Amino acid sequence: MLQEESDISLIIAQIVQKLKGSNLYAQLERQAWASLQRPEIKLESLKEDIKEFFKISGWEKKLQNAVYSELSVFPLPSHPAAPPEHLKEPLVYMRKAQGSWEKRILKSLNSMCTELSIPLARKRPVGEQKELLNKWNEMGTDEPDLSLFRPVYAPKDFLEVLINLRNPNYENGDSLSFRTHLGLIQVPLKVKDIPELKECFVELGLNTGQLGIDDSTQVPPELFENEHVRIGQKVLAEQDSAAAQQYIRQGSPTALRAELWALILNISSQPEDILYYEQLKTNVIQHDLLVDSLIYKDVKLTASNDDYYFVFEDYLYQVLLCFSRDTSVLNHFAYNSASPPKSYIRGKLGLEEYAVFYPPNGVIPFHGFSMYVAPLCFLYHEPSKLYQIFREMYVRFFFRLHSISSHPSGIVSLCLLFETLLQTYLPQLFYHLREIGAQPLRISFKWMVRAFSGYLATDQLLLLWDRILGYNSLEILAVLAAAVFAFRAVNLMEVTSLAAAEAVLADLSTLKVMPLLQIFLFATVT
Amino acid sequence: MAGKVKWVTDIEKSVLINNFEKRGWVQVTENEDWNFYWMSVQTIRNVFSVETGYRLSDDQIVNHFPNHYELTRKDLMVKNIKRYRKELEKEGSPLAEKDENGKYLYLDFVPVTYMLPADYNLFVEEFRKSPSSTWIMKPCGKAQGKGIFLINKLSQIKKWSRDSKTSSFVSQSTKEAYVISLYINNPLLIGGRKFDLRLYVLVSTYRPLRCYMYKLGFCRFCTVKYTPSTSELDNMFVHLTNVAIQKHGEDYNHIHGGKWTVSNLRLYLESTRGREVTSKLFDEIHWIIVQSLKAVAVNASPSLTSSTANDRILKYNLINDTLNIAVPNGEIPDCKWNKSPPKEVLGNYEILYDEELAQGDGADRELRSRSGQSLGPKAGRSRDSGRTVLTTWK
């Protein structure tokens, strides 16, 4: 009892500490002062009256949402004496692996830099600044010579690193047994099985209405859709983050999605936020970074060629170029196993006072990175709002897809979850694919790293990301990947090569995500 | 089983021929006995021109109505809509209702338009009322964006003035005629770009009017960002969306060809603008289509040239569904056919308007539930909510 209490007070103390520096705190203070003018606030019962005022005016709700947001994002300290590295990643071997991976990436970036004799950063001459400002809304028409740039890494390079991960403390013996994991990932992380997933994703069950299934044209809307929309509107009116998160597990109506996501991510476009974005834009105008070219290249190679997202090319530059310069993103490294690459001012190698993070936000984009932003363009067309939403999505979810950690939503766990599900519930398929040299993870990895962006139709992708927000977890990506294999199992059993398997799974654009998930979790005989 | 359908075409396109062959239809020449002739526009003109006096027999179907150019040619289209509106007004139909400024409430879907050189003086009068406006000149008989340009000064269209001394070489034949319309310079933009809609509508009969809209229409985007600034009036890549024009722009991307499906458009609009506005938009689009058809006859050939792989697949399926409706069950055509096709053969078409059903008894709601038709899930349902705005089909 005492332990719990002290745990909670520790958590409370931490959250209060975090919120004290926030804008909300300043606003609440101002509101409290202003409320003294109100007749109902009496000196004798000051505290209760102000609390009551906050409740009625909706400020308490905002505070609630902020607290909820902190709880969702920041991991709770397991032990008061745990050092900060443990918050990033408790397992030493994982930390080490992430460290070496980072060194490789940075080396690759630096050598590209040296080869091309391009500085990591340079100040733009005034003329160039003016030009860029004029072109801000159509940077897509720029045709810089990007032929010499290559992406720093691609998902498949990252996969090779994960395949070689080993836990030095784990001895699984030389003899193969039925417990031997036949997949590519060879680390013993705990992943859920289907009964546990069913419990976790209970709202996706057969008896619960879903958007993505029960809103199809054959189903009369009175059965589910109308009521669901009505509830959604109510949730929005209440401005309750926690309720929104619960609600969205059954999917979001298209018209409400933008607002719901903003509510769940606790994003409200305050003037300060718009100002902050404008400041980032100024940074872009004034300084040119090497990573900018990487971003350009990535957008040109991926989003520009996509059937759905090509329209939003210019938005992508506006978001990603600003993102690279946003130092507030550095905060998320407290709970990310990754660390921001450090660079030193020329000639001052090793001197900490001359160390800078590069890029300023500490995130080096890889091939396909822009696809994290693209689907959001379907929801938000105001650049600073779009930016905020993307940034929050990144520091809550997407970063886990390209850093090595033991977190249940980390890419390593997702890969292991995928392989385990396949091996356990579709053993014949798994074995067959392995025999023909088509390890399933080699095909599904890219889907998961990109959170399926660019592989699914946009409306389906948004329904999937609804559930990521609703369950505050990326595990659904692994489940979907397994469900896709299950769906195409018959065809896959007939292929005899990796290329043929890839071909069977090349086009996911016609898939309906929710029925696949539902069938796999709830309607398959296990 | 009765004999196989005999087909002819003078358009060598695989999307057509593959569809005929997969049904096991028999290819014949136009001099033989044929049932189904997919004609090019030129052939239609010859076949149905007054001189040849060609008449279709009862077991023959073609892919165009004889008066299709009433919708293709811009001047005829405008004439027909104006005439239709006046007729409705004369009948006292509620559709022709106007507001206090004299604007049609329900039939205001064509911007102010004049024929040149015939209406030149009328146009000048209108132009002078708002001299800073932009107008768009479109040649009557051309397609694919050819010959279109924008003007904002009278001097730019001096040639078309009837009194002009230079008009002697501008023949009065319909080939040189243009329509000039008020240019709408605040179009809906997506990603800062202008786009248009390419929708496929199949008209199977005129009386009663039975038409179907293909669900998989698409939007075509400009490659360049839109700007209403007058300096860009000459830049056709900003203002015109025809693929033929965009294809030659520097930024044209051959993998996707600057297109979105209509369902994408719907998703985007619903997400960013809300459900009601989007449903209203699509209702109104359908309304315009049906009214235009009622005003007149049917359009000439859509382009069967495919620009991308996806495009080819789309057009193949489109022709497939079209044939399924037009020649149900692969039976030899019979001009006495009058039944509505059953829902299963519609494929990706939806019933846009079925006059017989619309004129049957009972409210719209009853009709829809009886025949299982709807104009798309959201559009149909929104009407259930009892709106009395004239976006119903009666």
TrEMBL record, chain A:
This is TBC1 domain family member 19. It comes from the Eukaryota. Gene3D superfamilies: Ypt/Rab-GAP domain of gyp1p, domain 3. Residues 251-472 form the Rab-GAP TBC domain. It comes from Prolemur simus (Greater bamboo lemur). InterPro entries: Rab-GAP-TBC_dom (IPR000195), Rab-GAP_TBC_sf (IPR035969), TBC1D19 (IPR042507). SMART domains: TBC. The gene is TBC1D19.
TrEMBL record, chain B:
The keyword Nucleotide-binding applies. It comes from the Eukaryota. Keywords: ATP-binding, Cell projection, Cilium, Cytoplasm, Cytoskeleton, Ligase, Microtubule, Nucleotide-binding. This is TTL family tubulin polyglutamylase complex subunit L1. Its main location: cytoplasm. One of its GO terms (cellular component) is microtubule. PROSITE patterns: TTL (PS51221). GO terms for molecular function: ATP binding; tubulin binding; tubulin-glutamic acid ligase activity. GO terms for biological process: microtubule cytoskeleton organization. Residues 360-394 are annotated as: Disordered. It is found in: Cytoplasm, Cytoskeleton, Cilium basal body. Belongs to the tubulin polyglutamylase family.
